[in-house]
TrEMBL record:
<dbReference type="InterPro" id="IPR036220">
    <property type="entry name" value="UDP-Glc/GDP-Man_DH_C_sf"/>
</dbReference>
<dbReference type="InterPro" id="IPR014027">
    <property type="entry name" value="UDP-Glc/GDP-Man_DH_C"/>
</dbReference>
<dbReference type="GO" id="GO:0016616">
    <property type="term" value="F:oxidoreductase activity, acting on the CH-OH group of donors, NAD or NADP as acceptor"/>
</dbReference>
<feature type="domain" description="UDP-glucose/GDP-mannose dehydrogenase C-terminal">
    <location>
        <begin position="320"/>
        <end position="421"/>
    </location>
</feature>
<dbReference type="GO" id="GO:0016628">
    <property type="term" value="F:oxidoreductase activity, acting on the CH-CH group of donors, NAD or NADP as acceptor"/>
</dbReference>
<dbReference type="Pfam" id="PF00984">
    <property type="entry name" value="UDPG_MGDP_dh"/>
</dbReference>
<keyword id="KW-0520">NAD</keyword>
<dbReference type="GO" id="GO:0051287">
    <property type="term" value="F:NAD binding"/>
</dbReference>
<dbReference type="InterPro" id="IPR028359">
    <property type="entry name" value="UDP_ManNAc/GlcNAc_DH"/>
</dbReference>
<keyword id="KW-0560">Oxidoreductase</keyword>
<dbReference type="InterPro" id="IPR014026">
    <property type="entry name" value="UDP-Glc/GDP-Man_DH_dimer"/>
</dbReference>
<dbReference type="Pfam" id="PF03720">
    <property type="entry name" value="UDPG_MGDP_dh_C"/>
</dbReference>
<dbReference type="GO" id="GO:0000271">
    <property type="term" value="P:polysaccharide biosynthetic process"/>
</dbReference>
<dbReference type="InterPro" id="IPR008927">
    <property type="entry name" value="6-PGluconate_DH-like_C_sf"/>
</dbReference>
<comment type="similarity">
    <text>Belongs to the UDP-glucose/GDP-mannose dehydrogenase family.</text>
</comment>
<dbReference type="Pfam" id="PF03721">
    <property type="entry name" value="UDPG_MGDP_dh_N"/>
</dbReference>
<dbReference type="InterPro" id="IPR001732">
    <property type="entry name" value="UDP-Glc/GDP-Man_DH_N"/>
</dbReference>
Length: 434
């Protein structure tokens, strides 16, 4: 089996399969200590990386350009690696069932080019059992080798938070696991070269740890969203309540909002799938998902109701939405709940205009059929919806907001609570927030 010494001395190569938000930052960090190759099936992506360009914005240009990484789209190149890390997306399908297509395909590709003595580590978020019960048999079938004897497997869940320049891979503890002590020692040593590690008791424990991290966050936000709906019916703002509650030392400062993206809005479904498979109904998890998945409908209905109370003709009003990515300051709009809000508003007979300085216009059009309008070309709004807290929008003053709107009977829907009602109303604009 490959040893850490062989990897450290660069006698053997490390290969990262999948060069997205997770794989690329990991490859750049590991390249400081090991001979690293990056493999991706997307030729356009690989070509851009060779030119030192990262569309995700996760890696600084200087760090990317100085990284000694070989980028390849040729599966044959995988053969020269003795330590392989699989970091591909694991979404859900239209029925919220785990879609393991990409991780299975990546495993097949790795298996076809697997050489004896290799350790294969998975980083993709999965439910407990996927690495050993699904991926391992595929590797054995495609390679003709025996897991545990000819090659070994491990699991180290990714903890990348897109757009977060503080909690980067090298500053966050890495959970590591493997099928036996020998391979665990190598896995821990490789990751230990770039950050602190925690050795999980088993691969399934590590898989479970990852999936509950985001499920816990999803549930906490769901609680805030339920409170937002409740307190709205009682006539006051959840944010005013949170401001008071935060004065207690052990209060958890979560906030309400739209929960999208490829992690928090997806991972709970992986856990519920496995729970149901073993005969358990995860009532709390499903309840949280139900609340968060319906929040865009609540927001759309409240905006429309507010406009009606103001005497506005909803269908003849100009709606402008600022921001459509699933979180601030990143280009990723996968599973965007702002896109769901857009479509919900369309059901009321309006067609909002959307602007976002970070979103990939081509991908957005392909995924949702929504076009983007440059900020400078936005029409004057009757209802302006601040949906994502991009830094560019945080710089807008109440006077700037007024300058973006028509002349009378106007509404600012401040989903991210960037403003107070008082300062907006001083500009002669109606205000709504959760």
């Amino acid at each position: 089996m490959v040893s850490f010494e062989e990897l450290k001395s660069k006698q053997e190569c490390v290969c990262i399969v999948g060069l997205g938000y997770v794989g690329l930052p990991l490859a750049v960090l590991l390249s400081k200590h090991f001979d690293v190759m990056g493999f991706d099936v997307n030729e356009k992506r690989a070509a851009a990386l060779r030119q030192g360009s990262d569309a995700t914005g996760e890696v600084a240009i200087g760090a990317l350009q100085s990284a000694a990484i070989e980028y390849s789209t040729d599966p044959e190149a995988i053969r020269r690696a003795k330590f392989i890390i699989v970091a591909v997306p694991t979404p859900v399908d239209e029925h919220n069932i785990p879609d393991l297509t990409l991780v299975k395909k990546a495993t097949e590709t790795v298996g076809k080019h697997l050489v004896q003595g290799t350790i294969v580590v998975y980083e993709s978020t999965v439910y407990p059992g996927v690495t050993e019960d699904i991926c391992l048999p595929i590797l054995e079938k495609e390679s003709g080798l025996r897991g545990g004897a000819d090659f070994k497997i491990g699991y180290s869940p990714e903890r990348v938070n897109p757009g977060d320049k503080t909690h980067t891979i090298d500053k966050v503890t890495k959970v590591v696991s493997a099928m036996d002590e020998e391979s665990l020692e190598v896995v821990a040593s490789v990751y230990g070269a770039i950050t602190n590690v925690f050795r999980a008791r088993s691969i399934k424990v590590a898989e479970a740890a990852k999936v509950i991290e985001n499920t816990q966050r999803d549930l906490n936000i769901a609680f805030m969203n339920e409170l937002a709906v409740l307190f709205h019916k009682m006539g006051f703002s959840v944010y005013d309540v949170l401001e008071a509650a935060r004065t207690k030392w052990n209060f958890l400062p979560f906030e309400p909002g739209l929960v999208g993206g490829h992690c928090i809005g997806v991972d709970p479904y992986y856990l519920t799938y496995k729970a149901q498979e073993v005969g358990h109904t995860p009532e709390v998890i499903l309840a949280g998902r139900g609340i968060n998945d319906s929040m865009h409908k609540f927001i759309a209905h409240q905006i429309v109701k507010t406009m009606v109370r103001m005497g506005k003709d909803v269908k003849r009003s100009q709606f402008v939405i600022l921001g459509i990515t699933f979180k601030e300051n990143i280009p990723d709009a996968r599973n965007s709940k702002v896109a769901a809000l857009y479509k919900e508003l369309m059901d009321f007979g309006v067609k909002p205009v959307v602007s976002d300085p970070h979103a990939d216009a081509e991908e957005l059009k392909k995924e949702y059929g929504i076009g983007l309008v440059p900020f400078e070309q936005l029409p004057k709004a009757d209802t302006l919806i601040v949906a994502v807290a991009h830094d560019e929008y945080k710089k807008l003053s109440p006077a700037d907001i007024k300058g973006m709107m028509n002349t009378e009977n106007l509404l600012l829907a401040d989903i991210k609570r960037l403003y107070t009602a008082g300062e907006i109303e001083l500009e002669g604009i109606g205000y709504w927030s959760l």
